[in-house]
Design goal:
With about 575 residues, this protein is mainly alpha-helical. The protein is about 65% helix and about 5% strand.
């Protein structure tokens, strides 16, 4: 439990120390530390027999005992966070200071995921929010206020829920909270914090805004560590309620919210005017489908959400490493938006199948998820004809190969992941007594995945598709050798390129669907900025004018006013 966050913390200290000493080897320390922490996490869990562990020290923080807990769901979330962090630290250029800050963010995030109480989780989320805000402001000042405000609201709401849980149940420790203490108001507060942290809302959240920054390193780091942390709160809610949420109406409510989030993200992606704007909606789209599967309350839904969350974490680590033009970019975007045979494809397909099997109402939500999925893939195809940015990012070929390799390996081995990881987590969180035998809902092996509505040979189909994709990519690489590149026309006076990502003339590609809410936020903000307070009332909202009046008036007058106010309040 202690080794992975300790490794990252020590690497952060060493990297910062080397940077202060003038040595440029700080990043070299953080890269092996991230992969070592990942290996220790996996080897420790599987080598220890996959037995849940809990550690409590006789020290308290604001009345909450300090403790850590490790079980199947925490292991999955920590592994997802570590893989995304390792990809970003390894293949994104960072100086020693930024590398140290990234390792420190990862260490705090792992500790927050393993916190044994809701109060400690709130404090850990607060620390993560502060470090992420520092990282964002260090790179550039844009899109800092929105992220900081959203994450601050998230941990404040979560602390509010922890305080109420302490009052009603006597404790906020996950393993000691009475089942009856998790009531609907507390659950709604916890859910609000989770959705704010994960960005799983139908409108454009901080998760989309950070991708538009010129320097994506800090933004991608924030998405990689905070999105799994947000979904961990909803997984913890199942543990707090002994496999059930406090009201049956909450399941269709959050499932519908997930489907709405996916539809809104897909609509924004297909109407986007740049590749960066399209790519910014990959994580919100996956977050919506993951929320839809997790909110169903069935073992298949929870298992599908775990697999979808794994693909979501890898996308958060791979998307910043993709170039912004060329066939490699299109292949990476297609896999991020659910093209087979990647892990994203398998997780999303299982989420849709779980929604179709849960009932007629959730079946309609599953169909909405399918429509959002297809719209997202159409947005990737449309993005091929969008003009490339003026300063296109070259990406990292090695990072692309590593990330896509992990995505494809997860898709090919989906049956093994389902059997060894997803089904045990679903069995722990959703006991068989409430929804029947968990194993009958999802099965798999080395070559296939089986669900009640049908299965597919993930190993055979995914392996063949992966081999064909690698061959096609190699052929494209041969055709695009130096000397075979098509000639590009000179840039225009405004600096924009005259060709698109594949050297195709930039056409005016209209969106498939014009969302009615497009531009509503900008118009609302502009209208609010035009509002003015009438001149005769402006002194009421000017504290400096009140201060000047107080200093220039008689002291006895303000003494009488204070006395009168005190009498009114005490009466």
């Amino acid at each position: 439990m202690l080794a992975p966050p300790a490794i990252l913390a020590v690497a952060a200290i060493l990297s910062w120390s080397l940077g202060r000493a003038g040595a440029g080897a700080g990043r070299i320390v953080c890269v092996p530390a991230a992969w070592l922490a990942t290996g220790v996490e996996i080897a420790g869990w599987w080598g220890g027999g996959r037995v849940p562990l809990e550690l409590t020290v006789p020290i308290g923080l604001a009345g909450a005992p300090l403790g850590l807990k490790l079980d199947g769901s925490i292991f999955v979330l920590q592994t997802i966070t570590l893989l995304a962090l390792a990809l970003l630290v390894t293949f994104q250029p960072r100086d020693p200071g930024r590398a140290a800050l990234a390792s420190l963010v990862g260490s705090v995030a792992l500790g927050t995921l393993a916190a044994s109480s809701l109060t400690l989780t709130a404090f850990g989320l607060s620390a993560c929010a502060g470090l992420v805000r520092t990282a964002l402001a260090w790179d550039e000042r844009t899109a800092v206020g929105a992220v900081w405000g959203t994450l601050s609201l998230a941990w404040i709401v979560l602390l509010w829920a922890a305080v109420i849980l302490e009052v009603i149940g006597g404790t906020s420790v996950y393993s000691a909270v009475p089942v009856t203490a998790l009531q609907a108001p507390i659950f709604l507060l916890l859910t609000a914090a989770a959705l704010l942290c994960a960005g799983a809302l139908p409108w454009r959240t901080w998760v989309s805004l950070v991708w538009a920054r010129e320097r994506p390193a800090a933004g991608s780091l924030a998405v990689a560590v905070l999105v799994p942390l947000g979904f961990s709160l909803l997984l913890r809610a199942y543990a707090l309620g002994a496999g059930q949420w406090p009201g049956g109406w909450l399941h269709p409510l959050l499932a519908g919210l997930g489907a709405s989030t996916a539809l809104a993200a897909a609509g924004r992606a297909q109407a986007a005017g740049s590749l960066r704007a399209v790519r910014a909606e990959a994580v919100p789209l996956g977050a919506g489908l993951t929320l839809m599967g997790l909110a169903l309350g069935t073992p298949l839904g929870v298992a599908a959400a775990v697999l979808s969350l794994g693909g979501l974490g890898l996308v958060a680590g791979v998307a910043p490493l993709l170039p912004e033009e060329g066939p490699i970019a299109s292949i990476g975007d297609a896999l991020a938006f659910g093209a087979p045979p990647a892990l994203v494809f398998g997780g999303w397909l299982l989420c849709v199948q779980a929604a179709l099997e849960a009932g007629p109402v959730t079946g309609l939500m599953g169909l909405a998820g399918v429509f959002a999925w297809l719209t997202g893939l159409a947005a990737v195809v449309r993005a091929t004809w969008l003009p490339a940015p003026v300063a296109a990012r070259p990406g990292s070929p090695a990072g692309f190969a590593s990330g896509v390799g992990l995505l494809l390996a997860g898709g090919v081995g989906l049956g093994g992941l389902a059997t060894l990881v997803a089904v045990p987590v679903a069995s722990d969180l959703v006991p068989p007594g409430s929804h029947g035998a968990a194993v009958s809902y999802l099965g798999g092996g080395a070559i296939g995945v089986t669900v009640p509505s049908g299965g597919w040979p993930a190993g055979a189909l995914g392996g063949a598709a992966a081999i064909v994709g690698v061959v096609l990519l190699a052929i494209v690489g041969l055709l695009r050798r130096p000397g075979r590149e098509p000639a590009r026309s000179p840039s225009g006076g405004d600096g924009e390129r005259a060709h698109g990502r594949w050297s195709v003339p930039a056409l005016e590609v209209r969106p498939l669907i014009e969302p009615p809410w497009r531009g509503l936020r900008d118009r609302s903000v502009a209208r609010l900025q035009r509002l003015r307070v009438p001149s005769q009332y402006r002194s009421l909202v000017r504290p400096n004018a009140v201060a000047v009046a107080a200093t220039r008036s008689r002291p006895w007058f303000w003494a009488l006013v204070t006395l009168a106010l005190a009498l009114v309040v005490t009466r």
